[in-house]
Amino acid sequence: MTQTVGPTSEPEAESATAQKDNATAGALGTGTSDVRTLLTRNLRTSGIYIAFVVVVALFAILTGGTSLSPGNITNIVLQYSYILILAIGMVIVIIAGHIDLSVGSVVAVTGATSAVIVIRHDQPWWVGVLAALAVGLAIGAWHGFWVAYVGIPAFIVTLAGMLLFRGLTLQILDNISLSPFTPEYGKIASGFSNGLLGGNGFDAFTLLIFGVAVVVYAVSQFRTRQARVRYNQPVPSFPLFVAQIVVVAAVVMAFAYQLATARGLPYVLVILAVLILVYGVVTKRTVFGRQVYAIGGNLAAATLSGVKVKVVNFWIFVNMGFLAAVAGVVFSSRSNGAQPGAGNSFELDAIAAAFIGGAAVTGGVGTVVGAMVGGLLVGVMSNGMQLMGVDQSIQSMVKGLVLLLAVAFDVYNKRRAGSGR
User: Fold this and answer.
1) Which residues sit opposite 338 in a β-bridge?
2) What is the pLDDT of residue 287?
């Protein structure tokens, strides 16, 4: 039997060909318009990276290059690592439409717990770490219960927790500081892997680790791009894609070289990198991560689609308690003791990092990497102003203005997107 080709077959074939040509053009097109499209398609994301580069360059000029010296870069990593750890948990809380004001107090109480066990009771360092993590998980479960199952807003629950656990810290420490920790405990935040592979004036192991990370990143980005092309989704031109990879690799390896020529790879940076990798996967590639975004984006729709909102909210706060405990261990290790006032204003720095990094006030938007860039931006600004001898009051004013501008930028993006529909 002869099959008759209908009159719609030719237009359909032309349409399919056109779609394929458009996808190919999108993948291979070049020019300034391609760069402009890449930047404006995700203005919130690209904006924070541009701002970070500008801030780094500005303070490099103002400090005569001191801010980019190997010793200072190492100092930034050590000094702001616990804020970045808190920001990982905070951005997940904010994506779900909540807030956590208690993390500074949780840092204090977990550090105090570890100090009492290691210093006062002379137990091994790892016992203190495990005890601190257990306390953090318990506090997270406490907050999660009141928020998820009782229905009290997270703002109120964590505000109460901020006061409650600050007072508990004073009780645990008898209102005095405890120090010093054992050398093993101190290495958590102040130790370095140096000389494992040798090197002529630098630590080759640090360069190797960062080199492997760059290769993994490049392969991951290439596979993602191939998948987007396969499904006819827009992608930057291949030359621009390669340029992106080269720029990222150059920045990362320059950072690695600075560390390698200083004291090597800080242990705390390894901890932070593992957390970023794990939580990046959790938020982007797991059911739990998609449910967090769904709850923050549209709670009613998430409920109707079968998301167990109470369970997800509970575990969000358990996770925040865990990460606050990790930050508490890192901070107490770096300060070589526990103080009643530890962690003051840490919650504000973590919240600022999340919002500056692109999280939306209304929830449903944000990334772990964005929060890290936001935290580093605040850290570079603070460090640069300290090197310049800027008064602490001025530093607070500048950080406040940056936070306000970041949120205003988010509002502008939403209005711009709304008017474009």
Assistant:
1) 178
2) 95
Is the pLDDT assigned to residue 16 strictly greater than 50? no
In this predicted model, what pLDDT tens digit does every residue of 268-321 receive, in sequence order? Answer: 998 999 999 999 999 998 999 999 999 999 999 999 999 999 999 999 999 999
- Note the pLDDT of residue 17: 44
Every domain of the chain and the residues it spans: 44-185+313-419
CA distance readout (Å), 305 to 93, 190, 291, 302, 308: 21, 47, 10, 5, 9
Look at 192 and 385; give whichever has higher pLDDT. 385
